Amino acid sequence: MPNESKSCQTPSTSKLCQPFDALKLENQLCFPIYLCSKEITRRYRPLLEKLDLTYSQYVAMLYLWEHKTATVGELGKVMMMDSNTLSPILKKLEEKDYLVRERSNEDERNVELTLTETGAKLKNRAKEVPVKMGKCLDLSAKDAAEIYRLLYKILANVERN
Question: What is the pTM of this model?
Fold first, then answer.
């Protein structure tokens, strides 16, 4: 059977698709998303090292700064991590005296997280991180909002399918 080409849309351009064009790196939406994630996380590193946090620890702290308490399950859902992946992150934060982990009195299967005074004070030192990252990304508020909307649309679609 001869190879038939068809008209198709690729992320980089609108062009005639050949049989293996879908396998070209330039046509992968996931690749620029991966690169952005990797580079943004790399830019966070020196800012977070000053706070003695990894990026994953920072995300956990952001949630706790906002909510003061949470369960491991709640945090895991937000971070899209299972408890086996999240537990070592939380253990390190507890060793740094940023949070306390305690079994729930109502349901021993749940582990409750509570921000400590030291962890709460760290929030003041962390307030410059989003400002510096915003300058690094150099996006208009409109562009940032559109990217945010589209990324969460992708996440919802992936979770649904």
Answer: 0.84
